[in-house]
Amino acid sequence: MKDYNMELTYEEKEILEGKKGETMRKALKSVVLYGETFGAKRLLDIDGPVHLVTSFGMTGLDTVFDMMDEIIKAGIRTKEPFTVDPRPIDYDNVECNEIQKKVFKGLYGNQGRYESQLKKLGLKDNNAFTCTCYMPQVGNIPRKGQIICWAESSAVVFANSVIGARTNRNSGIIELLCGIVGKVPEFGLVTDEGRRAKWIIELKTSKLPNAQVLGSAIGMKVVEDVPYITGLDKFLGKGMNSSTMDYLKDMGAASASNGAVGLYHVENITPEAVEKGRDLLNKGYSTYVIDDQELKNIIESYPILWKDMNAKPSICFIGCPHLSIEQIYDWSDRIYRALDKRGKSKLKLNTVLSAAPDVISKFREDKRAYKKLTDMGAHLTYICPLMYMSNSECSKQPVITNSNKLRTYSRARFLLDEDVLHAIVTGDIKEAEKFD
Ligand code: F3S
């Protein structure tokens, strides 16, 4: 057996000698080499389900699909049923023209094959496609202190920060391999040391900032370091509740995509900050003060990548990361009020709200609320808007969004929630009236 720098258990050594088959040997070897690259000295047992980032059967990823076939053929499954990121296509709820459909057919030609592979590997169920697998309706909710292995950046930062579970920002496929061997290398955010903060973020704004902009500011400043945020409890209150969780979900996703944050602590709110307070700060930490002017500067720094800056938007995506059920109700109410104020009943812009299939099903059970939202012309979908945008045909459309992650990775134009409301009600972008 090759010499490894890591301390390995008897069982791990046996697997690396091929005692549990060639496929398991290769899977564990990949996990060990991955850990050694980051200086891990040993492996830890995973004690929660994995969540996979690779959810799309993209043409050209044949190596991945062949590897999946090999794992299935060896009779290996993940230790616990897993969840996976959103599906890329939903023609029923996200309008596509014939050319776009042709593009998607070419791009995601292996979707059927991939989904059937996922089922054989231990996919939770047919609804398990969402980046917010930790929603109560979906149920892949780790517990505080649990060691897990996830890769989806918005889910990683939520699990680490809001729940207090422990996972690195792993890459796709590695999380699957860790899931089937049931182990993760011990480094970074799974260690006490790696969870300490190198930054203190002092929030000094006059009101609660837009979560997506605050996350963006933090991410761009600290990049991959752990920040300790003070001043948010003044607006959100102490402790955790569902609206604080939604706020932190959106803030975290922006910090993870505009930077590479995998964990943040919020004073008096997130579990480890509640427990340890400023003891979480490293000696010699840096300070970043965020006030109203700083956030204004951040928003003004976003480039607009539309070909025609004055184009009328053609589609609006809300829900990246996927919305919670409370956020769907909230958007429905805000849209209703904004329309009502103008004496209108229908949206002028194709407006798509994304959420987990299980969250949508739950919302649909409330027939009146579902009718109210869809009668106004809004659509509910389970797709990932970024996967919709990631091709030349769709990305040339003037798309607006309130998601800083979607803005960062696509040509979509970012608007604050009140400007999004104005745009979807009037069909136009201009300085927003205040609807609420
Ligand atoms: Fe989720 Fe896709 Fe956005 S995975 S966070 S909806 S880019």
From TrEMBL:
<feature type="domain" description="Phosphomevalonate dehydratase large subunit-like">
    <location>
        <begin position="6"/>
        <end position="411"/>
    </location>
</feature>
<dbReference type="InterPro" id="IPR007506">
    <property type="entry name" value="PMDh-L-like_dom"/>
</dbReference>
<dbReference type="Pfam" id="PF04412">
    <property type="entry name" value="AcnX"/>
</dbReference>
<dbReference type="GO" id="GO:0016829">
    <property type="term" value="F:lyase activity"/>
</dbReference>
<keyword id="KW-0456">Lyase</keyword>
<keyword id="KW-0408">Iron</keyword>
<protein>
    <recommendedName>
        <fullName>Phosphomevalonate dehydratase large subunit-like domain-containing protein</fullName>
    </recommendedName>
</protein>
